[in-house]
Amino acid sequence: MAYKSVKGTKDLLPQDTLAWQHVEQVIRTVMESYRYGEIRTPIFEETAVFARGIGEETDIVGKEMYTFVDKGGSSLTLRPEMTAPVIRSYIQHSMGEQSSLNKLYYIGPMFRQERPQAGRFRQFHQFGFECIGQQAPECDAEIIAIAASIYQRLGISYSLKLNSVGDPFCRPRYKEALQDFLRGVYDHLSPESQRRTDTNPMRVLDSKDERDQVATANAPVILDYLSDESRAHFDRTCALLDELGISYTLDPRLVRGLDYYTMTAFEFVSTDLGSQDALGGGGRYDGLVEQLGGKHTPAVGFAAGMERLLIVMEKNGYVFPSSAPSVYLVGMDDASRAWAFRSAIDLRTKGIATELDYAGRSLKAQMREANKLACTFVAIVGESEMAAGQAQVKDMRKGTQESVEFSRLADYFTKDTENAF
Ligand code: AMP
């Protein structure tokens, strides 16, 4: 029987991981410049972390989580997202007591039992960052600026949608107005949205069902209901984005139904992605730390899919850096093969990527292999080279060849910037 990776999961092979490592490196460089520290939490958590942290009413908790009971009888869940684990960890380690502002980022796999389709997987990867401790609009604008900067560096064009979901003081008034409106168009709504009219009316606005979109075209918008505080926060966030030259469109349908979400909500979308067009999104969640058992702490964050980012980069013909220069050592008899084995280890210790033959192949076959592996240099050693203590070094890019003493090989391979490893 031939085993295959589970539906909705993917192997990343060496030819794929080169691109992934490049993207991860760009993310890390940007995060470090904003002085974010990396956090790595376990892949699974107690189920309650997500049920309370994402909300029982959401699709993720309702139907997409990989939840299982372990042998000790605990209900555990493979993480479907990272904000709840990050906040769980923030509370557990009393980070708020050590610093009034904690800036954390992550890159890693997430798990959701969704119907697999283009751009939607069951194990996928997210990068994201959370700024915990302050409510200043500067934090919101900065979170958006970081995401924009990463996309820009990776050559991804995007559009940014922005909204405010208000706060627990103004939202009830809006919800009431929205519910009144939805009851008026009730017969035109999808059954799911009819149900949500009572339970979570704001979610009706981001329904993908065309019936709902038509019926709610003239629904009241939350921006008209913001409290003075939320309005001032939103205006200042917009002004900061304007100053930074980050363009956005206001999207009153960008809503989150849960009470712990507050003020800023945003999403980056790409036209290169088809129906699953969300690159990433985020917003402010001033009520979540409290929801998970900590002290009231304002926070804002962002999460994005890695696979979708790579899909867009490949579509755009992004030129990923090729692998570092490398050396292939060719031995032709027992003595020179033994030399090749010793020297390969010596060169690798000096940081030079080195290949050699383990199969006793002929000179010709080794040269073919070096070519196939796209090695930058080939050093050939036979009986006479062993006697002279020199290798014949071929520069595969230039097609030139010269003799180089064994003791000078490492220097030779790294001698100028062109050869630099
Ligand atoms: P969310 O946590 O649902 O807001 O998702 C944040 C981002 O993660 C999305 O914008 C996508 O880029 C990505 N994402 C979410 N779910 C999946 C999935 N099943 N497969 C691939 N990427 C996903």
Provide an overview of this structure.
By secondary structure, the protein is of the alpha+beta class. Helices cover 40% and strands 21% of the residues. The chain has helices at residues 14-33, 47-54, 59-64, 83-92, 95-98, 137-153, 171-184, 191-199, 201-205, 210-215, 228-244, 288-291, 306-315, 334-349, 363-372, 383-388, 409-414; strands at 37-38, 44-46, 67-69, 75-78, 102-111, 123-132, 159-164, 249-250, 262-269, 278-284, 299-305, 326-331, 353-356, 377-381, 390-395, 400-405. The protein has an eight-stranded mixed β-sheet. The chain has a five-stranded mixed β-sheet with strand order 13-12-14-15-16. It is elongated.
* Tally of separate helices: 17
Mean pLDDT: 94
Q: What is the alpha-carbon Rg in Å?
A: 28 Å
Structural class: alpha+beta
Stretches where pLDDT falls below 50 for ≥5 residues? Answer: none
Please state roughly what percent of the residues sit in beta strands, choosing from under 5%, 5-15%, 15-25%, 25-35%, 35-45% or over 45%. Answer: 15-25%
Instruction: Label the overall shape.
Output: elongated
Helix percent reads 25-40%
Distance between the termini: 44 Å
> Which strand order do you get reading across the main beta sheet?
1-5-6-11-10-9-7-8
Question: Based on DSSP secondary structure assignment, what is the total number of beta strands?
Answer: 16
Task: Give a quick account of the main beta sheet: strands, pairing sense, barrel closure.
Answer: 8 strands, mixed
Which small-molecule ligands are present, each listed once?
adenosine monophosphate
